[in-house]
Amino acid sequence: MANLKLGKLPDRTPSKITITVGADLSQALNDYAALYRQTYGESETVAELIPFMLVGFLEGDRVFAKARKEGLPGAGASEKPRRQSSSTLDNT
Predict the structure, then answer these.
(1) In this structure, is the dihedral angle defined by the CA atoms of residues 45, 49, 50 and 51, taken in order, positive or negative?
(2) What is the value of pTM for the model shown?
(3) Distance, CA of 30 to CA of 84 (rounded, Å)
(4) Banded model confidence at residue 12, pLDDT cuts 50, 70, 90
(5) Does the pLDDT of residue 82 top 60, yes or no?
(6) Residues annotated as region Disordered (predicted)?
(7) How do residues 57-72 score in pLDDT, each as one tens digit?
(8) Nearest alpha-carbon partner for 26 in 45, 4, 2
(9) For residue 92, what pLDDT is reported?
(10) Residues 33-51: tens digit of each pLDDT
(11) What confidence tier does 9 reach under pLDDT thresholds 50, 70, 90?
(12) CA 24 → CA 17, 80, 89, distances in Å?
C-alpha cells in the first residue's frame, strides 16, 4: 500500500468549499482523489481533501511556522500588489 503524504482523513462533519482552479490543477486534484480512493479504499471528494491538503502544506512550511511563532505582522502590513495596473504606470 502506498504511503501518501496526506494520511487517512479523520471522521468529521463534511463542509462544502467552492473555488476556481485551472484545468491542470483540477485534473491533478481529481487524480489525487482517485489515488486516495485506491490507497485507502474510501472515496473522498476533492472538496473534502483540499482542507487537509492545505493544513499539511501550512504545517510543512517552516518559514510560515516561524513567522506564526514570532507573531505575524498586522493584517495587510507587508502585502505588496502582485500586478501594476496600466493606470499606475509612470507615463513620462
Answers:
(1) positive
(2) 0.58
(3) 34
(4) confident
(5) no
(6) 70-92
(7) 999 999 999 998 999 8
(8) 45
(9) 41
(10) 999 999 999 999 998 899 8
(11) confident
(12) 19, 27, 33
Q: Is 3 exposed, middle or buried (0-12, 13-18, 19+ CB in 10 A)?
A: exposed
Average pLDDT, the chain: 81
**Residue 66, C-alpha cell as written in the block:** 516561524
Q: Residue written as cell 493584517?
A: 75
Task: Work out the angle at residue 82's Cα, subtended by the Cα atoms of residues 71 and 60, and round it to the nearest 5 degrees.
Answer: 45
Amino acid at 45: T
Three-state SS letters, 5-67: CCCCCCCCCCCCCCCCCCHHHHHHHHHHHHHHHHHHCCCCCHHHHHHHHHHHHHHHCHHHHHH
Amino acid in position 75: A
Residue 29 carries which side chain, given as an amino acid letter?
A: L
